[in-house]
TrEMBL record:
InterPro entries linked: OMP/PagP_B-barrel, OMPW
A Pfam family hit: OmpW
GO cellular component entries: outer membrane
Organism of derivation: Jiella pacifica
Lineage of origin: Bacteria, Pseudomonadati, Pseudomonadota, Alphaproteobacteria, Hyphomicrobiales
Source organism, top-level taxon: Bacteria
Gene3D superfamilies: 2.40.160.20
Family: Belongs to the OmpW/AlkL family.
Protein name: Outer membrane beta-barrel protein
Keyword Chaperone: no
Signal peptide residue numbers: 1-27
One of the GO BP terms on file: transmembrane transport
Key words of the record: Signal
Length: 224
């Protein structure tokens, strides 16, 4: 066979081998390129039923043996979360509740001192664990600013609980039914000890209300 025919045959064989060997890899590359990447929004909301369980401690300055207690409540709560990464998110908790303030200990005879409404917007930074499939636990920590409003005296002729900052700790989980809907359980501890002024029998008194509530909630999660 002439040399140029041998060369042509060798080149053709090499080309055929290259195509054969690269076929699966090329197909894999094309498959990888064609596979759609599903977009997941960083926004998430939850709607919970929330139990607010207070610590029931406090005192009136200068009154030995004085103590305070507060009513527990069940309220609706909305929270909005933003995911910076799959693991790190910020959550803003929105809800309002009320508390009856009662005299205890040496001032138990006063009965209900008064009533106040409370708006404590709370912001936490969370770490979400992502290695458990549909079960997605998280922990968080942050701060709250408690705003007291519509305060009315009962045994007291005047009640003024001061707005204040507090710290917050959080643990909970989402169990995702599908890519968007899930069930949430959440527990928070809020460290909240506002000062207050009160007028009883014409005398102006002050003290500290150690609310320090547990917030225990469950409800629906929706990831956009």
């Amino acid at each position: 066979m002439p040399i140029h025919h041998q060369t042509a045959a060798l080149l053709a064989g090499a080309a055929l081998a290259a195509v054969t060997l690269s076929g699966p890899a090329a197909a894999a590359d094309l498959t990888g390129i064609a596979a759609p990447v599903e977009y997941q929004s960083p926004w998430q909301i939850r709607l919970r039923g929330l139990g607010v369980l207070t610590e029931d401690e406090g005192y009136v300055d200068g009154v030995n043996g004085s103590d305070l207690s507060y009513s527990n409540t069940v309220i609706p709560e909305l929270d909005i979360s933003y995911y910076f990464t799959d693991n790190i998110a910020a959550e803003l908790i929105l809800g309002t509740t009320y508390a009856n303030v009662n005299g205890e200990g040496s001032i138990a005879g006063l009965g209900r001192v008064g009533k106040t409404w409370l708006l404590p917007p709370t912001l936490t930074l969370q770490y979400h664990f992502t290695d458990f499939g549909k079960f997605k636990p998280y922990v968080g920590a942050g701060a709250t600013y408690a705003i007291f409003y519509n305060q009315d005296g009962d045994a007291a002729s005047d009640l003024d609980i001061e707005n204040t900052f507090g710290a917050a700790l959080q643990v909970g989980f989402d169990y995702m039914i599908d890519d968007h809907w899930g069930w949430n359980v959440d527990v928070k501890k809020i460290f909240l000890e506002p000062d207050f002024d009160v007028v009883v029998g014409g005398s102006k008194l002050s003290g500290k209300a150690k609310l320090n509530p547990w917030l225990i909630g469950t409800g629906v999660t929706y990831r956009f």
